[in-house]
Write a structure and sequence with these properties.
2 copies of one chain form a homodimer. By secondary structure, chain A is α/β, with parallel strands linked by helices. Chain A has 2 domains: 165 residues, Stage V sporulation protein AD (Peroxisomal Thiolase, Chain A, domain 1), CATH 3.40.47.40; 152 residues, Peroxisomal Thiolase, Chain A, domain 1 (3-Layer(aba) Sandwich), CATH 3.40.47.40. Helices cover 34% and strands 22% of the residues of chain A. A 6-stranded mixed β-sheet of chain A has the order 1-9-16-13-10-11, with helices on both faces. A 6-stranded mixed β-sheet of chain A has the order 3-2-8-6-4-5, sandwiched between helices. A two-stranded parallel ribbon of chain A has the order 7-12. In chain A, helix 1 packs across helix 2 and helix 5 packs across helix 6. The relative contact order of chain A is 0.20. At the A-B interface, helix 2, strand 5, helix 3 and helix 9 of A face helix 2, strand 5, helix 3 and helix 9 of B.
């Protein structure tokens, strides 16, 4: 097997990070860690899509401010999101006087953007790179599923798209947790055709990337304080645990999934949170906080993405998944 | 102004490239340079979207073969396309046993993927990276505009989405033209709201990136054998020439636009070709060919992308553009 894992020599630091979430997310399990909780999902805009764009703008501004940098110090934005043509990211990028590199990895985008950003900073190509992603329940729901007004019943395996944006600044200067490794994942498709069951569709890609990462780096789950997937949810994370056990690797109490942990049980999100914003807001609030405090020392962050589109589904395609992993050390 | 231009120390080489186009494109001005001309737009598949995915697969396989490499030698695919959730690229990636990094820059994607690929190879992070993009007239038309059966009249400023995919392999080993520089562009929006007039919407971003590139590198148009934009088309390239002249820089006979040059006059494409596949297939056939033969020595390749979506347009948004540039030397 070719080595998929990149080890960073200079180890770019996360010098600033910011998370902004909707009101439902602001009542969930990570409520004490977010930088900003919106009062409603419109965020002062006329449409949910414009609100999502504004969330991205604010996350970028927030991360730059927390890095004690100015907009003029930033060399590049690496960002993407779930909306068609990643408009939340692209239209947000319009507001800033720095170049923009659009990426797409569905809900794996936070790790993808950070892996790309870390390569660019580690290699000395640019000094300060902002990495960002977002999702919004109301924009995702009406683009991927049904009109909100339709009020469809949600199947038990479904998840709740997080309304939230997360951003961080990578740099060699300044202080913060270090990005030490990155493992880009392969696209894996085990033939799942139930578009409500994203956890089952994405779990195999998480397994593939995790196996590659452990093999490439000669590590085991015990080498990490926290191994965290993005939005496999309750069912998907159980499937991952099973799949890994079949491969002889036992994921213990140091394994968790952002989606599974995101909401309180009485918030009725069924299998938990999902969307790019799910792992992005947990990473850029709770996880960064714990790394800075020294309560976490080495984290394997590996959000997964379901690479479907409504067109692909309508043409009878199954749902491929991808999982990109990064290692962050305090 | 911060330096936007990256200069590659090791100068990754384009060791293999491949272009595949539809029958209309195969009758255009570059017909003698393409690797494969399809007999029809379905390419043996049941839908245009599946045909587009298959074009990507073939372009990737073709580029790897022409690089005299095997699939097992490839470390990463960097790809994106115009379809929602870049499904042509993601579903094609499913067929290959190497990691996948999805990118989105609309019709600037060939340069974006190559800039990212060149950074990864130049920095020594991976050995062999495939960069790819695609577009298909029939998938783009029905996603962005009208059902094909509707047979709408096309306004004079409109362009014709190229059915074609282009791919290349970047590596430090082997022989081929070198990627020596890359300039990531900013998102520029001058308020164009006519979604048929992509040339006008994208020309300002080409100007911004071109000005940044010339300033960052202390070069002038005379330093390049060929300066080529992606799909500004007849009108957009005229606008770019005007805009540059206003800034005191005269673009001469060494400037051209892939879209403007793509089709014969009697092929009725109005302002010319467009789509990710436009610049991708010209670059990976004609331009690479001329570089290899020594007929071109230094090329500034700068495709532009219009970062709109139908949702953004329906919500009254204007059309932002982005332009990424790379320099290739024979």
């Amino acid at each position: 097997m070719k080595c998929q894992t990149i080890k960073f020599k200079k180890q770019p630091k996360i010098v600033g990070s910011y998370s902004i979430v909707g009101p439902k997310e602001g009542e969930g399990n990570f409520k004490d860690y977010f930088d900003y909780i919106m009062k409603n999902d419109f965020f002062g805009e006329k449409t949910f899509e414009k609100a999502e764009r504004k969330m991205v703008e604010n996350a970028i501004i927030g991360a730059i401010a927390k890095a004690k940098l100015e907009v003029k110090d930033v060399n590049l934005l690496v960002a993407g999101d779930l909306l068609n043509q990643i408009i939340s990211s692209s239209y947000a990028a319009r507001a800033f006087d720095f170049p923009y590199l659009g990426v797409y990895g569905a809900c794996s985008t936070m790790a993808e953007s950070m892996a790309v950003g870390a390569i660019i900073v580690d290699g000395g190509y640019y000094d300060n790179v902002v990495c960002c992603t977002t999702s919004h329940f109301s924009t995702a729901e009406r683009q991927y599923r049904f009109p909100l007004e339709f009020g469809n019943q949600r199947p038990p395996v479904s998840q709740w798209t997080v309304t939230g944006a997360g951003a961080c600044v990578l740099s060699l200067k300044g202080e913060g947790p270090k990005v030490t490794m990155a493992t880009f994942g392969k696209v894996v498709d085990w033939g799942i055709v139930d578009v409500n069951n994203m956890g089952a569709a994405m779990a195999p890609s998480a397994m593939e990337t995790m196996l590659a990462h452990f093999e490439n780096t000669s590590t085991t789950p015990d080498d990490y304080d926290l191994i965290v997937t993005g939005d496999l949810g309750k069912l998907g994370s159980e499937i991952l645990i099973d799949l890994m056990e079949e491969k002889g690797i036992k994921l213990g109490l140091n394994y968790g999934d952002c989606g599974q942990m995101y909401y309180r049980r009485d918030q009725k999100t069924l299998c938990g949170g999902s969307g790019c914003g799910c792992s992005a807001t947990v990473f850029n609030s709770y996880i960064i906080n714990k790394l800075k405090k020294g309560e976490l020392k080495k984290v394997l962050f590996m959000p997964t993405g379901a690479l479907l589109s409504t067109t692909a589904t309508q043409q009878g395609e199954s749902v491929p998944g991808v999982c990109h992993a990064i290692v962050i050390e305090g």
